[in-house]
Amino acid sequence: MKAADCTPCNLAEAAEALESGLLVAFPTETVYGLGADAENPEAVARIYEAKGRPSDHPVIVHLAPGADLSYWAKDIPDAALQLSEAFWPGPLTLILKRADHIPDAVSGGQDTVGLRCPSHPVAQELLKSFKAGRGGIAAPSANKFGRVSPTKAEHVIEEFEQELGPGGLIASVLDGGQSDVGIESTIIDLSRLSTHGPVLLRPGHISVDQLSAVLGVVPAMPDAAAPRASGTLESHYAPRTPVILVSPDELDQVVSVLESKGKTIALMSCQSHPELNAKAWTQLPTDPAGYAFGLYAGLRELDQASADLILVEQLPSDAAWQGVNDRLRRAAFDSRHVLGEWLS
After folding, report:
1. Are the C-beta atoms of 168 and 150 separated by less than 8 Å?
2. Would the N or C end of the chain have less CB density within 10 A of its end CB?
3. What is d(CA 184, CA 93) in angstroms, rounded to the nearest whole number?
């Protein structure tokens, strides 16, 4: 199956497929999403089936520009209106108290709901066509659960080859080019303002400094009682090849020891390392936005190199890199023990 060009006809067909309870993969500015009618629990269940996603892991509901927040959420604080005015359409998800009539299928059984308005023109046109702009599309990233998110239509097709087309779970894949941002949206919890204030559940392209400038306070870090949110498990965004984070100062030594043990590597870095013997190498920009744009495509490419592991040169730890570092930490979480075993 090929991805569909985003013509008005194809967009209309995709909207009709969503209204009939089918799944549609579509581009957003962050990553590609796997969408279903957010008010159809059976359709949302198909997302979980296709992805292999745990049923208690919530999804984000995407809304058209100008959508009525009060239809989807209740007890909406002023902070939500301020943030939506400042950053929507854009890569920011608000966690609010879920309106009583919205099915809990989208929230993993919680009393909250994640809402965002994407800025990608194809996503916006699809949302405007779907239920005449009054519907919501529940859409996590269009990949198998826990794996690397897709930033191109071809990534979605590679991921879901068996679920696409007539008789499959996914009716179509809309091709809108490579996602501009490249990592998932910032998620901020506003459902417990009176007791916890705003809480940053997942960092992203919109920084803590930007959020603080609008809110007047610095968002807190997640606590044990924070709502579950998309992409916040310790292990996530991981290719099949183990990912290891290595400081620039240790990179040469680590590669040398691995070579002596017969291990092959693929490398992701900002700096050039022609002296290192890597089966594949992806060099990404030295600025956070440029790095984020190429991160997932780079990980997918390196994952196909059939190396024993992917070494990623560690990045700066300052706030501008928070979103990218969050994704890399989760991608490497299950591989932390591998390097120690091989170097021992």
Report:
1. no
2. C
3. 10
**One-letter amino acid identity for 177?**
G
Q: List the beta strands (DSSP E) in the chain.
A: 4-5, 23-27, 32-37, 60-63, 73-74, 92-98, 112-116, 136-138, 170-175, 186-189, 199-202, 243-246, 265-269, 280-283, 309-313
pLDDT, tens only, 189-224: 999 999 999 999 999 999 999 999 999 999 999 999
Structure token digits, residue 48: 């979980």
Q: Which of 222, 225, 51, 200 is nearest to 138 (CA)?
A: 51
Residues composing the chain: 344
Q: Are 226 and 238 in contact (CB under 8 A)?
A: no
Distance CA 135, CA 120 (A): 17
Residues 6+ apart with CB under 8 A from 72: 61, 63, 96, 98, 99, 102, 113, 115, 136
Cβ-Cβ contacts under 8 Å for 229 (sequence gap 6 or more): 58, 93, 95, 114, 187, 189, 201, 202
The answer to whether the CB of 239 falls within 8 A of the CB of 335 is: no
Instruction: Please say whether the dihedral angle defined by the alpha carbons of residues 67, 70, 74 and 77, taken in this order, is positive or negative.
Output: positive
25-70 pLDDT, tens digit per residue, is 999 999 999 999 999 999 999 999 999 998 889 999 999 999 999 9
Q: What is the pTM of this model?
A: 0.95
For the beta carbon of residue 343, count every other beta carbon within 10 angstroms. Answer: 12
Residue 247's identity, in one-letter code, is S
Which pair of structure tokens corresponds to residue 280?
């594949």
Geometric angle at alpha carbon 24, from 121 and 85, rounded to 5°? 40
What angle do the packed helices 208-215 and 78-87 form, to 10 degrees?
A: 130
Q: What is the C-alpha separation between 177 and 28, in angstroms, rounded?
A: 10
* Rounded CA separation 127/219 (Å): 30
Q: What are phi and psi of 23, to 5 degrees?
A: -100, 145
